[in-house]
Amino acid sequence: MSKQYDTVLVGSGLEALAATSLLVQRGQKALVVEKHNMPGGSTSNFRHQDSSLNVSLHSFDSVRSGLSKLVR
Question: pTM for the complete prediction?
Fold first, then answer.
């Protein structure tokens, strides 16, 4: 694995994963760093005792505008 990257993204939410995909498609070496054991950020869920708790986002209004500002 390379130890040199053009871009390092901290967190693996939808925007980071989408941005990483675009960066790699444009030939950059990108690394995504996530502290949890699963990617997805706010689109994930977790179990607590006998319940499954959904922490998903309910609106994606800013995803497109955020990505267009990040990747130009």
Answer: 0.59
